[in-house]
Amino acid sequence: MADRSPSLTRNPFTAEEKPAVSVAVEHLSKSFGALQVLKDVSFAVEPGEIFVLMGPSGSGKSVLLKHIVGLELPTAGRVMVDSHDASSERTREQIRMALVFQAGALFNSLSVYDNLALYLREHQVANEGGIREKVMRALQILSLENAASKLPAELSGGMKKRVAIARALVMEPQLMLYDEPTSELDPVMGATISEIIATLKDEFHVTTIVVSHDRDLALSIADRVGILMNGQLIHVSPPAALRDPHDPRIDDFLNPQVDLKNPRFKKLEI
């Protein structure tokens, strides 16, 4: 089955309107032993906003994302989701948050259908008939209904990403977090995934935080972009401000130049 763009509709899962949530990261620091990964990071995400967090590899982006969803505990500072501590189990019970992992994190032994149904079954959200309805609607939204019986090994990289997003969608999240959603995808499928993220936000009014290296994604779908370097948040602005950054660190990151005269690039002598 070829990858194709999704056909998105109004939220089919529930008639109940769930308000989008706010996120506040307040003076967050995190250390692993002597290694300090995050250093006094503060920013806020408004309800219904798409906030894209960018930065070089190893700058702490994924660690920060895990703090927001409550998978890591701060060394100092805190993360608040709708004024509730993100690390509290009660918060995770009251506010539905879904994290789309970089590699998809699909269960290889389960079909696409069963990957989506797993959360609904474990939390006894509905009977099997209700679960089937929710799963098939999520697959339809992501144009994956014909892949329901396939195993992850039978899917392309783009389809795996879309299955991971569909699995998050069946949770009816108020907050969706994506870790490098366009990594290892070709430019066309990367653009498709970016479009899906933006459309889900518009259709379902879900607050969205994306960790990404993808400059095109950030400039095209973000309401605001944060730049994290060496564990510090050095910049937050609408994406338009990044088209001509005044900070040379940001310019070097977003617009890297390759010096072919550098000795490192000399041709190997055989």
TrEMBL record:
UniProt entry tagged with the keyword Signal: no
Location of the ABC transporter domain: 23-255
InterPro entries documented for this protein: AAA+_ATPase (IPR003593), ABC_transporter-like_ATP-bd (IPR003439), ABC_transporter-like_CS (IPR017871), P-loop_NTPase (IPR027417)
Keywords: ATP-binding, Nucleotide-binding, Transport
PROSITE patterns: ABC_TRANSPORTER_1, ABC_TRANSPORTER_2
The organism's place on the tree of life at top rank: Bacteria
Keyword flag Ligase: no
Molecular function GO terms recorded: ATP binding; ATP hydrolysis activity
Pfam family membership, one: ABC_tran
Protein's name according to its UniProt entry: ABC transporter related
